[in-house]
Amino acid sequence: MSKPQLTLYLAAPRGFCAGVDRAIKIVEMALQKWGAPVYVRHEIVHNKFVVDGLKSKGAVFVEELDECPNDRPVIFSAHGVPKSVPATAAQRQMIFVDATCPLVSKVHVEAQRHSDAGLQMVMIGHKGHPETIGTMGQLPEGEVLLVETVEDVANVEVRDPEKLAFVTQTTLSVDDTKDIIAALESRFPAIVGPHKEDICYATTNRQEAVKAVAPKSDALLVVGAPNSSNSRRLVEVASRAGCNYAQLVQRATDIDWRALEGISSIAVTAGASAPEVLVNEVIDAFRDRFDLSVELVETAVENVEFKVPRVLRQPA
Fold first, then answer.
1. Strand 245-249 versus strand 96-98 pairing type
2. What angle do CA 211, 177, 171 make, to 5 degrees?
3. Which of 48, 124, 129, 239 is the most buried (most CB within 10 A)?
4. Could you report the per-residue pLDDT of 229-260, keeping only the tens digit for each?
């Protein structure tokens, strides 16, 4: 029996960004330099496949620093950590390596700079997300107020409306954030924004690529983890851009084939912490079931690279 025809639009850019690439490299280089086990506080990036791969090489993932012994290296995840974490590690004379994405670190520096200038911070972000916890933890309690929605802006209580600045989580939806920023600027005309938008280039590029493929696809799959903020935003962006069925899948085995019955086109992308091997696995699963033609839809070219910390470039 001949297979039904299907056009698969492959969004680009997709998958690993420079910050994720660097974070994974940091764990691998730490294992080479110091041997196993190397401890990692929180998932280095939000992807089970990546985390399991590093576990098999000798990385031990923990939630808090007090689960780590003093005599083994510890790595802080790409999402960033509150200031108290490296301070405690230094106090315990631990070897620690900070894998915080440089674009998240930029937000940390910005928050500190505004605070030093006497401004109270408003952070646009998701409550409980490691990046939000890390950024809010750069300043003393009460110095960073979190808003998640336009409604939150109406209810936020500030110390002095004339002395405010805002930062954002780097993995948010560009469109949602625009509305929240507009609400902040409307309620607090004196509020100071970042020199350059905090939402990272990779998040923006992946969302733009989804906007290009979503309207012409019957369905769209985002390869990514359920706890990955940027992956979940891609699903939302696809739905908003006119795609009737947008779904997050961790692997090809998660695809709901019944929901895809009768489609003639599908788009595939991947969140910034999903490796290309999982995208290829999804494409192969479609190739098994359909007479597949793959079209690349590229909206930007990325050539960003971040250096690993100096401690890893020096001999042990």
1. unpaired
2. 70
3. 124
4. 999 999 999 999 999 999 999 999 999 999 99
The residue whose two tokens read 């979190």 is 146
C-alpha radius of gyration, the chain, whole number: 21
CA distance 122 to 158: 9
C-alpha span between 147 and 156 (Å, rounded): 8
| Tokens matching residue 237 | 């962006």
Beta bridge partners of 124: 147, 168
Burial class (CB in 10 A: 0-12, 13-18, 19+), 141: exposed
CA–CA distance, 28 with 32 (Å, rounded to integer) = 6
Catalytic residue among 28, 63, 67, 131: 131
Tell me the whole-structure pTM to 2 decimals.
0.93
pLDDT at 316: 67
* Per-residue confidence band for 196, with pLDDT thresholds at 50, 70 and 90: confident
Chain position carrying tokens 């090809």: 252
Task: Say how far apart CA 261 and CA 292 lie, in whole Å.
Answer: 15
Please identify which residue in the block is written with the tokens 């080479």.
Answer: 32
Single-letter amino acid code for the residue at 115: S
Note if 131 is an active site residue.
yes
Q: Which two tokens stand for residue 308?
A: 């690993």
- What pLDDT was estimated at residue 210? 98
Per-residue DSSP letter, 53: H
Query: Is it true that the peptide bond before 215 is cis, omega within 30 degrees of 0?
Result: no
